[in-house]
Amino acid sequence: MRAIVRELRNLSVEREAGRVTTEHVKTMQYHYGYKHLPNGLLQDEHLAVRGRSNLHYDYYHIYFVSGIFQKELQGLTTFLAAENFSVDRITAFLKQWEWPRTSVNPSKMFADWHINSDHIKCDAHVCTTSYEILAFFVSSVIIPSGVCVAQCTSFLKLCDVVDLLMAGRHGNVDPKRLLTAIVTHLCAHLRAYGILVWVPKFHASTHLANQVAALRAVVGCNIHEIRHKLIKRWTRDRFNTAGFESGCIEEVTLQHLYNLKKSMIGEGLVDAAPPTGKLRASMMEACGCGVAETARVARTNGRAFSAGDFAFVRRDGRLSLARMLFHVKLEDGFRTCLSELQDAPSPSDNEWCQTFRQTDNTYVVDTACLVAPVKDYSRGNMIVALVPAIVRMQSCAAS
After folding, report:
1. Is residue 281 located within the same domain as residue 331?
2. Both 70 and 202 in a single domain?
3. What predicted TM-score, i.e. pTM, was given to this entire model?
4. Is the CB of residue 298 less than 8 Å from the CB of residue 334?
5. How far is 294 from 275, CA to CA, in rounded Å?
6. Which domain does 231 fall in, by range?
7. Are 53 and 47 in contact (CB under 8 A)?
8. 355: β partners
9. Based on the structure, what is the number of domains in the chain?
10. Kind of pairing, strands 291-295 and 318-330?
11. Domain check: are 136 and 156 in the same one?
12. Rounded Cα gap, residues 347 and 143, in angstroms
């Protein structure tokens, strides 16, 4: 890193002297993935900021902000288009599914798709929400057709990496396993595309495992990225330029203080309200204690769960699927009332997808037993559920 900083600093001096062109300097900056700034932290010899020990790559921007995921998906869909496999088929597949109410619906992610684009134009949240369903579609529809097998294999290896990165947000991830997954994907990508869509972010991804080993955490700036929307909210359509900066700062600060009134972390109910008399009586009969509050949405285990959605639940030491009916706060903690589903294996089931049968049985569990909400679609009385990464990884560990 120091060598790159010195080289670009020397090039900047040469440009000032007229011995090299500005275009050459820009080309070298693009090649190294680093922009020379005369007053940048890395230029200060006294601060001695060290690239490897003090600076860390953000997986969120590497993979999901005009990153590896969007470029890989653009490459896959472009190769598929050459085989007369339209993105409209992928869009139609996405529209079959019901999405958790606490999630974004990515069914329009290919609305601006163009064969000459260098990446899919969709935001990071859409990427992390859609990758499992896209992987299921690739493995169950495209690969059996024998079309673009190398490109499909590369995409599935990328999804293995995303699985580990998503798991790392909710707990530790093994650095060796992450490095193996990243290298496996990069090798598969090179076999499928060569250097056609290769950019510095592919190289940057190889540093993530060492960072996880050093920090025991996956570094991601997804929350910072989301907060961009707050700034844009108060700077867009602001036509009076008098006091522009101070006015924006005032509005953003007031909005932030208002948002802090509601806890954004920890377990609990969202927008809780007093229960009805009927619900209070039912819960007293079921649990033997009174209901203090009720809500449609509850937060637990780092996720949000909405009534009406399906979720995997840990019950009696095993994972099962259930439909959430409502959440309540009792005198001794939080509970969720669920509608039971039974396993109904189908020939089309695989690691990504499982089939269940709805029943009329209901039961109550601690809200902390909820593992992850799921995406699903119904076939009569049957529910086809996409198995989330955390459940697939726990099932693999158990086996």
Report:
1. yes
2. yes
3. 0.80
4. yes
5. 6
6. 225-236+245-259
7. no
8. 384
9. 4
10. antiparallel
11. yes
12. 17
